[in-house]
C-alpha cells in the first residue's frame, strides 16, 4: 500500500495526504517535510511499519489517506547500537543509536541528521490569457539553489513496575534550517508594444527548532492479557524564524521587499483508552482525548523603491495573529464475530472550538462544531489464506493556520496568494473492498476504493484579465469524486523476493464557486521491485515504475518514471553493512511538468531537478541484537491539513 516515487515522495493507497507516527505518536520531525524527515530517518533502527488505511473510531477523525506508523527497535537485553553514514552527489545523512536494558529498566537513544548541498533546480512558468488586455504572454525562467539541514534526537526510557504495569517517559529535540536563492527573468509580451524584460531575485532563510516530551502508563490485568487501561500525555513545542528578501527590477521602477516572520506553536494532548474483551469473539474499546493547540505568529513587511533609500513599513503586507484550537473527543468501538464473519463498528464524537485573531487585518475566526464519525468493516476468511474485507468510514479535515491566515504573499505583484479565515472543516466518505491472498511470504491483493467530498478544502486561482494578476486562495469549494483499483503481489523464492503493483485511479474535481474550473482523468502508478541474495553476505535489489498524481484544480502533475538498483555487502559477521545505490542512472535530470487550465487562462510550469543520484553508505552494529518490543503505544494525532 506504500509507494515511493523517484523524488522520494511517499504515497499511501495512492494518496499523498496521510499522517506519519513514530511508535504510535506524532512528533515534530515530520511536521516540516515528511519527505526530508524520511530521507534522514535511520532504516537500521526500524523494526516494522504499520499501515492503517481505514482507521477505526479509536483514531482521530482526520486524515484522508490513513496512518503510517514507524515502529523502532527498542528494549534490547544488555546493550546494542549502530553508527551509519551515507553520502551522495546531492545529499548526505548520518545516524547513531544506543539501546540498553537491565532488569525492568530500558533506555533507547537515537540521533540522526541529513542535508543537501547546493541543489539546483531550473524553473519555468508560462501564463497565456485568453483575453490579452493586460498582456499577451508572461514567461518566467529562473534557477533556485537550495541548502537544507535537519537533525533529530530521541530519548526514551521505560520501566516495568511489575509484570502488568509499564511506565514510559520520552523526549525529542529537532531542528534545522533552510536557505535558498532564487533568480528569475520575466518576459512579458504585448500586442501593441515591445516585450518588457524584468528581473526578480529572492533570498530565503528559516530556522525551525522544536522539542517534545511525554509519558505513557499502560496497565494490563491478571487473568486477561488482552484487557488494558492506558493514560498518555504528549507536549510538542516548535518555532519557525524566517527572513525573505527580494528585489523586482522592472522597466518602470524597482521594488525591494524584506519580510520577517516568526511563529511558535504549542500542542498538548491528554488521552485515555480502555480495552475490554468479553470473549474471544467480542471486544469493546472506548476512550477519550483532548488536544489543545496554541499558535502565535508575527509577519512584518518592509519595502522601498530605491536601493539607497531606507526601508519603510508596508502595513498592507504585515500581519500578526493568535490562534487557539481545542478538540474534545470520545469513542466506542465494538468488534465481534458471527459464524465466519468478523465485524467492527464504531462511533466517534468530536467537538472542535477555534478562536483566532488576525490583528492587522482585523479578522476574527470563531468556530464551534460537533462531528459524529461512524465506521464499519466486515471481513471473512473464505479459506486459510484468502480474506475478503469490506468497509466504510467518514473522515474529517480541519484547516490549520496557513490555510486560514489572510496574510498576502505578493513578492510577485502579478502572482499573489493568501489564506481564508472563513474556512470550515471538510468531510470525506470512503468505501473499500479488498481481496487478500497470503501464503507465507507470498501475497496477492486486489482493492477497490471509492470516495466523495462535497466541501473539499482546495487552492484555486482566479485570473484578472484587465490587470493580469493571478490570485491563489483557499476555499471549501472543491467537489471530488474518485474511484480506484489497486493490485499488488509479492512472491518469495529461495534466493529471490520480487513483486509488482499497479493503481488505476479516476477522479473528477470541480470548483463549486468558479464553475469553469474542473479537471478529470485517469492517473495512478505501475511498478515493481526485486531483492536477490545469491550469498549470505551479498545482495542485489532494485525497484522502478511510473506514477502520476490525481488531478487538481491547480498544478496538475504529468507522469514521471523512476528506477534504482542497490548493491549490498556485509563484513565481520554481518556487523558492517555497506551499500552502493544507483538512482535513475540513465537521466541526469528530471523535468516535472505542471499545468493549470481555465477558460480565462492557462499556466504551464516546469521544474528541472537533479535525477541521477549515486550514493554510498555503511552501517556498523555492535552489542547484542535480541529484541523485545515495548508495550507502549503512544499518542497519535492524525488530524491536520497543512499544505
UniProtKB/TrEMBL annotation:
Keyword line: Cell outer membrane, Membrane
Any Pfam family the entry gives: OMP_b-brl_3
Keyword presence, Membrane: yes
Superkingdom as given in the UniProt entry: Bacteria
Domain Outer membrane protein beta-barrel: start-end pairs: 224-620
A single GO cellular-component term on record: cell outer membrane
Signal peptide: none
Subcellular localization(s) per the UniProt record: Cell outer membrane
Stored InterPro entries: Beta-barrel_TonB_sf, OMP_b-brl_3, Plug_dom_sf
PANTHER family: PLUG DOMAIN-CONTAINING PROTEIN, TONB-DEPENDENT RECEPTOR-LIKE BETA-BARREL DOMAIN-CONTAINING PROTEIN
Name assigned to this protein: Outer membrane protein beta-barrel domain-containing protein
Record lineage: Bacteria, Pseudomonadati, Bacteroidota, Sphingobacteriia, Sphingobacteriales
Amino acid at each position: 500500500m506504500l509507494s515511493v516515487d523517484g523524488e522520494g515522495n511517499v504515497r499511501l493507497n495512492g494518496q499523498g495526504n496521510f499522517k506519519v507516527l513514530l511508535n504510535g505518536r506524532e512528533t515534530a520531525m515530520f511536521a516540516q517535510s515528511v519527505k526530508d524527515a524520511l530521507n534522514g530517518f535511520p532504516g537500521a533502527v526500524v523494526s516494522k511499519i504499520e499501515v492503517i488505511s481505514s482507521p477505526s473510531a479509536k483514531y482521530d477523525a482526520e486524515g484522508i489517506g490513513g496512518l503510517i506508523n514507524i515502529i523502532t527497535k527498542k528494549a534490547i537485553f544488555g546493550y546494542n547500537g549502530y553508527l551509519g553514514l551515507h553520502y551522495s552527489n546531492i545529499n548526505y545523512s548520518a545516524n547513531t543509536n544506543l539501546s540498553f536494558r537491565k532488569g525492568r529498566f530500558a533506555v533507547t537513544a537515537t540521533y540522526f541528521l541529513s542535508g543537501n548541498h547546493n541543489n539546483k533546480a531550473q524553473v519555468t512558468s508560462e501564463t497565456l490569457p485568453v483575453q490579452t488586455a493586460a498582456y499577451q504572454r508572461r514567461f518566467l525562467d529562473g534557477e533556485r539553489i537550495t541548502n537544507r539541514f535537519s537533525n533529530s534526537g530521541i530519548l526514551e526510557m521505560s520501566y516495568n513496575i511489575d509484570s502488568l504495569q509499564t511506565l514510559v517517559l520520552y523526549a525529542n529535540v529537532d531542528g534545522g534550517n533552510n536557505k535558498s536563492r532564487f533568480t528569475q527573468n520575466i518576459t512579458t509580451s504585448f500586442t501593441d508594444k515591445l516585450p518588457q524584460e524584468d528581473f526578480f531575485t529572492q533570498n530565503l532563510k528559516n530556522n525551525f527548532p522544536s522539542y517534545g516530551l511525554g509519558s505513557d502508563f499502560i496497565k494490563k490485568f491478571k487473568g486477561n492479557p488482552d484487557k488494558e487501561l492506558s493514560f498518555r500525555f504528549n507536549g510538542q513545542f516548535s518555532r519557525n524564524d524566517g527572513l525573505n528578501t527580494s528585489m523586482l527590477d522592472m522597466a518602470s521602477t524597482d521594488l525591494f521587499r524584506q519580510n520577517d516572520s516568526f511563529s511558535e506553536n504549542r500542542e498538548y494532548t491528554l488521552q485515555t483508552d480502555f480495552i475490554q474483551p468479553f470473549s474471544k469473539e467480542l471486544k469493546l474499546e472506548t476512550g477519550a482525548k483532548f488536544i489543545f493547540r496554541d499558535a502565535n505568529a508575527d509577519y512584518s513587511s518592509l519595502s522601498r523603491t530605491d536601493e539607497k533609500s531606507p526601508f519603510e513599513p508596508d502595513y498592507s503586507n504585515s500581519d500578526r495573529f493568535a490562534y487557539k484550537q481545542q478538540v474534545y473527543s470520545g469513542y466506542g468501538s465494538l468488534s465481534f464475530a458471527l459464524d465466519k464473519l468478523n465485524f467492527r463498528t464504531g462511533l466517534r464524537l468530536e467537538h472542535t472550538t477555534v478562536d483566532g485573531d488576525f490583528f492587522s487585518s482585523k479578522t476574527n475566526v470563531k468556530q464551534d462544531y460537533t462531528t459524529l464519525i461512524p465506521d464499519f468493516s466486515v471481513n471473512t476468511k473464505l479459506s486459510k489464506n484468502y480474506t475478503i474485507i469490506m468497509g466504510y468510514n467518514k473522515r474529517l479535515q480541519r484547516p490549520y493556520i496557513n490555510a486560514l491566515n489572510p496574510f498576502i504573499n505578493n513578492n510577485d505583484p502579478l502572482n499573489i496568494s493568501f489564506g481564508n479565515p472563513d474556512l470550515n472543516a471538510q468531510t470525506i466518505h470512503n468505501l473499500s473492498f479488498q481481496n487478500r491472498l497470503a501464503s507465507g511470504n507470498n501475497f496477492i491483493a486486489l482493492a477497490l476504493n471509492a470516495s466523495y467530498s462535497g466541501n473539499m478544502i482546495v487552492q484555486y486561482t482566479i485570473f484578472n484579465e484587465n490587470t493580469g494578476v493571478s490570485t491563489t486562495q483557499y476555499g471549501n469549494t472543491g467537489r471530488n469524486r474518485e474511484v480506484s483499483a489497486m493490485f499488488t503481489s509479492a512472491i518469495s523464492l529461495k534466493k529471490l523476493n520480487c513483486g509488482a503493483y499497479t493503481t488505476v485511479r479516476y477522479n473528477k474535481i470541480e470548483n463549486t464557486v468558479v464553475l469553469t474550473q474542473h479537471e478529470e482523468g485517469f492517473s495512478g502508478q505501475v511498478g515493481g521491485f526485486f531483492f536477490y541474495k545469491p550469498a549470505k553476505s551479498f545482495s542485489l535489489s532494485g525497484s522502478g515504475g511510473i506514477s502520476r498524481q490525481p488531478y487538481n484544480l491547480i498544478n496538475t502533475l504529468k507522469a514521471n518514471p523512476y528506477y534504482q538498483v542497490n548493491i549490498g555487502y556485509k563484513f565481520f559477521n554481518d556487523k558492517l553493512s555497506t551499500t552502493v545505490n544507483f538512482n535513475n542512472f540513465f537521466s541526469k535530470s528530471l523535468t516535472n511538468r505542471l499545468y493549470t487550465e481555465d477558460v480565462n487562462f492557462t499556466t504551464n510550469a516546469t521544474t528541472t531537478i537533479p535525477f541521477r543520484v549515486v550514493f554510498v553508505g555503511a552501517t556498523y552494529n555492535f552489542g547484542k541484537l535480541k529484541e523485545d518490543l515495548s508495550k507502549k503505544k503512544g499518542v497519535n494525532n492524525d488530524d491536520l491539513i497543512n499544505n
